[in-house]
Amino acid sequence: MTSSSGGDDSDVFSESPATYKEEDFIELKSRMQPLFCADPTQYQTDACLKRFLKAFLTVDQAFEALVKYIKWRMEYAVETLNSSHPDIQTDLSTGKVLLPNFKDKAGRPAVFVFARHHDASSRNLDQLTRFIVYVIETAAAKCDESVIDNICILFDLKGFSLSNMDYGFVKQLIWLLSRRYPERLGKCLILNSPFVFSGCWLVIKFWLNEVTRSKIIFIRDKNHLEEYFDQEYIPSTLF
User: Fold this and answer.
1) Which segments of the protein form a coiled coil according to its record (predicted)?
2) How far apart are CA 13 and CA 210, in angstroms?
3) Which pTM does this prediction carry?
């Protein structure tokens, strides 16, 4: 799959094993070490290497994916994507995403997405992709990797209509989470899902592998949401 976020990767939606072998991690770390020594700016943490091992089937595939990831970060200038970047400021001003300082009950940094503030007909996919990367990077940076190294994304579909449905955005998000940020998604909560979204979901779910689908939870009500977030952190505007 060719993506505007960079690279041409096949088997984008391959299944993800739940664990990794310690000997595979040692081998992968040994193979990555010359790259890190040659250019310390390319260094990736042990937690990152383990995530790639969990997401890809072999050491060879994990190594190849990591090399592509490092190259992509450099070519895409990921480090320059901050809140002062013009494209990031534009999307932040819409109110479509909130990056709160609190975490869910499992310790995952939270991302709140308000679909009603997204206009699919007027968005620029390249600009939106930069914004997605910024959001993932910002949330992931809040992870305490000694406890948990994935994030929780909540999609609020209150006021959602088909004008907000953006399949290009969804495909790009899936691509990024599977190829550039594997195992970073811990839970995806979908709240206030209207009937009109049921048809959209029938399309989207076939783009997801079984592992990813198992992380998606349709929230029934406030009590259900409180299983994931402390009551004090749940905005009253959600209900």
Assistant:
1) none
2) 9
3) 0.91
> What one-letter code names the amino acid at 124?
N
Burial degree of 66 (CB within 10 A; 0-12, 13-18, 19+): buried
CA proximity to 152, closest of 136, 164, 171, 168: 136
Same domain flag for 99 and 183: yes
Percent helix, strand, coil in the chain, to 5, is 50, 10, 40
Where in the sequence is the domain holding 49, given as residue range(s)?
22-76
Same domain, 156 and 206: yes
Same domain, residue pair 54 and 89: no
Q: Letter for the amino acid at 18?
A: A
Confidence band of 18 (pLDDT split at 50, 70, 90) = low
What are the tens digits of pLDDT across the range 158-206?
999 999 999 999 999 999 999 999 999 999 999 999 999 999 999 999 9
Q: Which two tokens stand for residue 199?
A: 């048809």
